Amino acid sequence: MSTKITRWTLRSKFILILLLFGVLPMIVIGWAGYNASKRTIIQQAMEIQSRLLEQTVASLNSELSMYQMLAGSFGQEESVRQMLDPESSPDDLKRYIKEWDMFNQLMSKLVFSKFEKTPSILIYGYNRKVFTSWGADGSRLADYLDSKAEFKKVLQAGSSERFVWVTPHLAFDPSSATEPMLTYEAGYTDIETGTEWGKIMISGSVAALVDDLASNNQFIIAKTDGSLVYSPSKATAPVAILQEAVAADYGKVTTVLNQGKSMDNSLYISAKLLNDWVVVKEIPYQNFLSELGQIRNILLVVIGLCALLSILLGHLFTGRILRPIKQMVRVMRRIGSGEWTHVPLIRTDPELDMLQRSFLSMTSDLKELHERMEMEQRQKLEIELQTLQSQIQPHMIKNTLAVISGLALHGQMEKIREVVHALGYFLSSKIYPENPLVTVKDDLDALQHYLTIMRIRYPDRIHVLIDVPDALLGQYIPRFTLQPLVENSIYHGMYGEAAIHIWIQAYDISDTFTITVSDNGAGTSNRPLEAVVEAEDIEQMQTYSGIGLSNIQQRIALYFGGAGSLQFESSPGSGAQVEISLPKQQ
């Protein structure tokens, strides 16, 4: 006779999962091989691109160096000194024409014979003489240049430094060229006088200079402050890359900026030019990883299928495990917040079903124990409150009769009537109702009768200010709360013949409300919440309230749980304050 298995055990299910995912090591090995190949290709690409950038930067530095040497060569020529002599004037046409001949000879000697791409030459004298490798359509060159904003920017750039590379600018010659120009500006200083007589400007097309770099238009040139000098086709680089390029230590000619990092799916290589500008070249990974695309796509499909299978199986198997556990957690949280509810059984695996039934049985036992302990605690506090009240009554009657006796001797019948009425109310069942909670209004009424007796007993020494909004008079508090707090303020706070001021205030705070009882009495360094105040004789009864703060605090916790609280603050000479926070009843 065979036994039919209707349920799989948890162990069997986990064995099945392990068997299904035996292919995972194959996926890991394949992915590791792909990453290893990718790293190798990237490393080789970095080396190749670095060598190419080194060659390009060397060529560019050679061009820039020739600009510097050309400016230096012009500056060493005696004929240039004659041209820029401040004693001469462009109005001396005969001399000016002769100097133009000398300038053309210098162009043949220094420029035409050495440069394949002739740069633009401009010698600008502060004596208003200008010599250029281009004409100005018959206009006076000095006046023409003064009208060009681009020339003024270039001239201003060299005002603080003798030698300066000027950020690419538009051409200021009469041509219609719109491509940016790069200018090396050198100040011409007379050796004898030490004063600057003019500027020598060597300009060239940036596009022509960076022709080797511009093959893919994915590079930028930046200054040491991170500002862009040149960027073809609006090419950009992340700010972090620019900052790294500027701060890099160029021990070698080139530096890989984001090695080991992914930055916009590109590799960035930088190099520094001889004028301290940096070239940042972007090489997209796709340029050299395209061959791995097919392998990567296959791996992604395999990984995706495995991930989908893992999610499906994980959902099916772990769901059956977690459902009863989550339900037990929810029940625990409800129990923690004081909510006891019936929990239905969930059909699950045999092992978890046993745990679930044991937990529900334990929950039922805990509920019965909690209810029994709550009832015992409630009865204990009620008995304690009744005992303390029974201790207060004889003491209260004795003191009040003494007051009445004193009033009778003086024939103050009206005050005797007030005292007797207040005492009768105070000892009546109105302040000891069956309901453990009373409204704020009822507790204040009981307090007013108590204060009537105390004001007659201590004339002009007890001043009580009550500030409770009407909206809070119907809220509930534990019965016999305010009178003990005021009594504590009177007996603890009054000293000598000084009067005491007591403030009773209530505040509406969203879903809760707060009642504070504060005084300006003697204060104390004791912490009365640590134990219930107990009176052992009549003298001590006159000093302490029969109802301690601890009893009030326990009743608040019993009736309101964690939503209610009582705080006590006091220090010698600074009075005392009791603050009670309770939830509002809707």
TrEMBL record:
Reaction(s) catalysed by this chain's protein: ATP + protein L-histidine = ADP + protein N-phospho-L-histidine
Keywords: ATP-binding, Cell membrane, Kinase, Membrane, Nucleotide-binding, Phosphoprotein, Transferase, Transmembrane, Transmembrane helix, Two-component regulatory system
Protein name: histidine kinase
Protein species of origin: Paenibacillus silvae
Subcellular location field: Cell membrane
SUPFAM superfamilies membership: ATPase domain of HSP90 chaperone/DNA topoisomerase II/histidine kinase, HAMP domain-like
Catalytic activity, EC: 2.7.13.3
Ranges that cross the membrane: 298-322
Keyword Cell membrane on entry: yes
A Gene Ontology term for the protein's cellular component: plasma membrane
